[in-house]
Specification:
- By secondary structure, the chain is mainly beta.
- The chain is built from no helices and four strands.
- A two-stranded antiparallel sheet has the order 1-2.
């Protein structure tokens, strides 16, 4: 079973003015403890970074 990240406000779409959380980080046997958007890369979505806790 996959577990979605808790609801941090990591708005990632559209990259020019992020107003939606449509990108997700899902884990198995781990917990997402922090989620944040990274700088734009040329995509229409911002990349996301996640801190996870194993176990």
């Amino acid at each position: 079973m996959l577990t979605p990240a808790r609801s941090d406000l990591a708005f990632s779409w559209p990259a020019a003015l992020p107003v939606a959380r449509i990108d997700q980080v899902m884990t198995r046997s781990a917990t997402v403890t922090k989620l944040w958007p990274l700088p734009a890369t040329g995509s229409d979505h911002l990349p996301l970074a996640a801190r996870i806790r194993l176990g």
